[in-house]
Amino acid sequence: xxxxxxxxxxxxxxxxxxxxxxxxxxxxxxxxxxxxxxxxxxxxxxxxxxxxxxxxxxxxxxxxxxxxxxxxxxxxxxxxxxxxxxxxxxxxxxxxxxxxxxxxxxxxxxxxxxxxxxxxxxxxxxxxxxxxxxxxxxxxxxxxxxxxxxxxxxxxxxxxxxxxxxxxxxxxxxxxxxxxxxxxxxxxxxxxxxxxxxxxxxxxxxxxxxxxxxxxxxxxxxxxxxxxxxxxxxxxxxxxxxxxxxxxxxxxxxxxxxxxxxxxxxxxxxxxxxx
Length: 275
Known about the structure:
coiled coil
């Protein structure tokens, strides 16, 4: 049960770590996408500014050219009296050039206004993107702080689990040691039982061989009993005679001991009197 709980907690920790990594990877990818978009917008704005500067320069050059044409108009009027019929054609050419210059200038103004509006939109979009990036960074910073706190909490839980695992491992090792000791004792006991079984088998075999000799032994025993009966009778008489002699000797010894005891008492009385 403890192992199952440990595996479940470990799986949860791995899931949380995987989720944190996925979130961080998503944040990094989103930040890279925003940065790439901002870079493209800034680059496009710079290109538009360059194009706007070139158009303004071109407009200024056209204005200068128009002024030169306006200034050169009186001089050409004095020459008209000398040249006669060429005056009308020169005026028509100057009028055509002025109209063409105005049309180009109008077109340039419209182009400049379009580029200016586009540049303004790009600047607005850039500011919005920068604000989004700032908001995103603030949001991600808060999420990272929360994730960091969660990770610290998980680190504490992991440390607690490691301590529990260490205790469990110690208990398992102790149980394993006891089981190994018990298994060794059981093996020794089984070995002894096997040896005893072998010894019993030998004894059984010996007993069976002896049982086979039992009839012959019975005959020998009966013959021995018959012989013993005669011997017992002879020995019985001898034992009775020896017992009688022993009793007489014991009676004599008792009498001698009584006499010795009486002498000891007399000597003790004499000793007391002398004292």
